[in-house]
Amino acid sequence: MQRSDSCLVLSFSQLQALGKALKYPTAFTFAMDLLRLVSVLHEFTVTLATSIVVKHLDQLIVATNGEVSTTKLETDLPIWRCQVATHCAVWWMQNKSQPLKR
Length: 102
Description:
By secondary structure, this protein is of the alpha+beta class. Helix content is about 40%, strand content about 25%.
């Protein structure tokens, strides 16, 4: 978590484990609504020098430097982490100064 320019593509349970391992004061729970999760991820990525990509409640959520973007998934992506991690890696290589496209 100390390395800059890191992007973690995590399942929600992996995000929970990460928060627990880092002793983050707010727990990530499956009962969180989208607004609460966005708020916690905002604070999480302001505090830590990392970016997070997670899928929760049929939403793909990207958080970096306190900015959070959500995209509703029209269809479920059963094997989503590999595909999303690939897209993230390519995007960051090509757009280092713009982790979130505006």
